[in-house]
Write a structure and sequence with these properties.
α1 packs across α4. The protein is globular. It contains 4 helices and no strands. 18% of the residues are buried. The protein has a single domain, classed as Orthogonal Bundle (Non-ribosomal Peptide Synthetase Peptidyl Carrier Protein, Chain A). The chain is an all-alpha fold.
Length: 88
C-alpha cells in the first residue's frame, strides 16, 4: 500500500508542476525540500483525500510541511489500512 501511495503522491507533484527528479523518501514537503507552499500542500491533501477517502484535520497542514515524502506516504498508507480495517 505504501508504494502505491508514494507513486500517487509523486504523480500528483508532477501534475502540480514540481520537479521530482531529486525527490526521495527523506525529502521534506515544505520549504527545505519539495518547497510546497500552503496552497500547494492543501491541493496535495485534497487530492489524497479524494483518492483514498481520507480527511485531514485543519490543524494538520503545518505538520504536513515538516514531513518528509516517506513520512507522508507512510501516514497515508497507515490511515488507509486503518480505515479498511474499521479502526479509523
Amino acid at each position: 500500500m505504501r508504494d502505491e501511495v508514494r507513486v500517487f503522491v509523486i504523480e500528483q507533484l508532477t501534475d502540480m508542476n514540481y520537479d521530482i527528479d531529486d525527490i526521495d523518501d527523506d525529502t521534506t514537503l515544505g520549504p527545505s525540500g519539495v518547497d510546497l507552499e500552503s496552497l500547494a500542500l492543501a491541493d496535495l491533501a485534497v487530492r489524497v483525500e479524494d483518492r483514498y477517502g481520507l480527511k485531514f484535520a485543519d490543524d494538520e497542514s503545518e505538520k504536513l510541511a515538516l514531513m518528509t515524502v516517506g513520512e507522508f506516504t507512510t501516514m497515508i498508507a497507515d490511515r488507509v489500512v486503518a480505515s479498511a480495517d474499521g479502526n479509523a
